[in-house]
Amino acid sequence: MISSVYSYYLSQYGHKANSKYDSHTKLQLKNTYSKVVRINSQTPTYKLDVTEAAQKYAIDLKENARELSNIALELSDTESGAMTFKKTAVSSNPDAVSAKFIGNSGSVDGFEVSVKQLASNQINTGNYLQPNSKLIQPGEYSFDLNINNLTYEFQFNVDENESSNDIQNKLSRLINRSNIGLISGVVEDSLGNTALSIESESTGLNGVKPTIFNIKANNDRQANNPDFVEGFDKHTTEKNDKLINTLGLDRVTQYPGNAIFAINGEERFSPSNDITINKAYVLSFHNTTEEPVAISLKADADSIAESINELISGYNNLISVATDESNNRFDGNAKLRKEIAAIAKTYREQLNSNGLTVNDDGSIEINKHAILKAANDNSINGIFESLDSFKNAIQSKAEDIAVNPMNYVNNKIVAYKNPHRTITDPYNLSAYSGMMFNGYI
Questions:
Q1: Backbone φ, ψ for residue 106 (5° rounding)
Q2: Each residue's pLDDT tens digit, 41-88
Q3: Mean pLDDT for all residues in the chain
Q4: Residues pairing with 156 in the sheet
Q5: According to the 3-state scheme, what is the secondary structure of 112-177?
Q6: I need a surface site. Which of 44, 121, 169, 433 has the fewest CB within 10 A?
């Protein structure tokens, strides 16, 4: 049974990435623990329903409640806690610098960015050779390729009927299949001659090294090498040298460089064209700029509608668990359905007047057209004021469900707590309260 339940959990929720609101400080974890202890001190002793169906039901409740709570936190101002909306980063020149906002919903200052130089990768372009020429003698060859302080040895054979173009294509496939951060191909010039091209996937400089990778003939096995292989003679080293020189594998045609940019006039450097500013913006450089590019936040109609849709979708996902007919076998399901639906019905009038229709089962339908119209008419504040109290109410309920999901299965009371003298029972926590604290990291 345990194996089945965990398989269900992994298949349904294991693929979801943790939200930033799943990371907690020691104080937050202590407050959560205190809440769990307080619940236990006031809760009767139950004979729990530990069937497989009950455990899956509790998992569904907890995970959907956690998701709804995180959505509500995402749409709350970090300072006041009031309802806010997702903001979109806007660039005055997206062809040169594109921006994405990853910060909190609170206010974040805009800034100006200038790009003087893009970060570049390293490109080695070999010698252009006639495709049908046979400049490499048949035999075994090897060379060393150093990248990221690691050295890889490449070995291959050249057959009698292989041309220069055949060898170039063979080496290109060999490098691409190695998956070491390089992209290789065969390029052709205006005369029809071909050369082997090798590019690094990464950009920028690392320390004082002028290159990201380098290629050299595998000729160091004889001198000062404890791994010397007998038979790696002078003739072999000369063949490997000729291979490098003929193909031009070590010929650097573009050296890597860092991006040079300025934020509000302050010059900075980056080995990548994708950078993060103040843990709030992700910038991607595409071209250099002549004039500073303004980066700011904008709450457009689509982002406002998306925020409201996300909140209502999280709410509907949770209530869908309670309204699922297969869960009617649990006595606590009707209680849960009433508690959640009661919240929506309390705010029915305000929600209905703002493009959100509350159905009889407690689910909510969204009239996106009405919300977009309100956003464009600058009357969206009225919707947010109505949603603020609703958001706080469902967030509080979601947190309670996430801490104690087993409260809604078939629990039979065995003994009541003394109402005049409650006793904390910390050793009984894992029975129901705080079930599966998998989301706390």
A1: -70, 175
A2: 777 777 777 788 888 888 888 888 888 888 888 777 766 777 777 778
A3: 82
A4: 141
A5: EEEEEECCECCEEECCCECCCCCCCCCEEEEEEEEECCEEEEEEEEECCCCCHHHHHHHHHHHHHH
A6: 44
